[in-house]
Amino acid sequence: MKHRKSNDNSVLWFVIALWLSAFLLGPYLWIEFVKFCVWAGQYTWP
């Protein structure tokens, strides 16, 4: 167990940062995705 703990800590912080960014940007990205689907649907749907 030389550098195991610090390594796990960095991974944990990376996961937390990733989750936080997904949590904060999630709704915005979903709204953009829906807007894109509606915009694309105007041209692809009969």
TrEMBL record:
Keyword annotations from UniProtKB, A to Z: Membrane, Transmembrane, Transmembrane helix
Segments passing through the bilayer: 12-31
Protein name: Uncharacterized protein
